[in-house]
Amino acid sequence: MTGLNNLIRTFFDLEEMVNVFPTLITVGLRNTLVLAVFAMLFAVVFGLLLSLLLVSRNIAVRAPAFLYVDVFRGLPAILTIYLVGQGLPIAGIAPFGRSPYPYAVVAIGIIQAAYLGEIFRSGIQSLDRSQMLAARSVGMTHHQAMWLIIVPQAVRNVLPATMNQFIIIVKETSLVYLLGLFPLQRELFSIAQDHAANTGNLSSLVAAGIIYCIITVPLTHLVNYVDKRLREGPKLVAAETAEA
């Protein structure tokens, strides 16, 4: 019984949870979502550009893009975040000054751009070649056809996978604690870790975990729903065509 009480006090101390929840919500949740959204925007834009390089017929363009993908998919995320967030300012490359916040956004963004680049590449290559031929036949240039015809369809086809990467980004924001965020820049994990270190109790980390789940679990179900709708769409169209 004593062991169970110790377990409850260590991980599920309601008083400690109540004490830390206001800061987790007002500071941690806000910063976690801001970091995730901006990192996702960075990753989507860079990932789209990267995907176009990956499908290029010019090997001099394609090879560096594949190298980028291999490197940033192969490195541990925490190492990339540290090298960008701490390494660049130490090397004298500090476009954002001393604030670690924008470096965290860039670090997560360049990691996820590697994954999204591959996702978008697979979406582009999954389309029938007749789409490009039809666009070119009406006078579009190759670049116009890619941006106006191919890319929008490819993004739609890989929308569930793209949304899933956002869920991963939300969780990866917990790694930016090692950049030494300012008090008002701390995300969920940083706040919970600081509170746990000060009190010797891990209930704050459990509280942060609950908030992460409140964010990610509904998003996961949304991804599954969107994926199901996209897969059922072509079947529904085919069935309606057959009935007609």
From TrEMBL:
Record field: transmembrane: 33-55, 67-88, 100-120, 166-185, 205-226
Signal sequence segment: none
SUPFAM superfamilies per UniProt: MetI-like
Alphabetized InterPro entries for the sequence: AA_ABC_transptr_permease_3TM, ArtM/GltK/GlnP/TcyL/YhdX-like, MetI-like, MetI-like_sf
Sequence ranges assigned to domain ABC transmembrane type-1 in this UniProt record: 29-223
Membrane topology (UniProt): Multi-pass membrane protein
Domain of life according to the entry: Bacteria
PROSITE patterns, per database record: ABC_TM1
Gene3D superfamilies per UniProt: MetI-like
Cellular location(s): Cell inner membrane; Cell membrane
Assigned keywords, A-Z: Amino-acid transport, Cell membrane, Membrane, Transmembrane, Transmembrane helix, Transport
Entry's family note: Belongs to the binding-protein-dependent transport system permease family. HisMQ subfamily.
Protein name according to UniProt: Amino acid ABC transporter permease
Taxonomic lineage: Bacteria, Pseudomonadati, Pseudomonadota, Alphaproteobacteria, Hyphomicrobiales
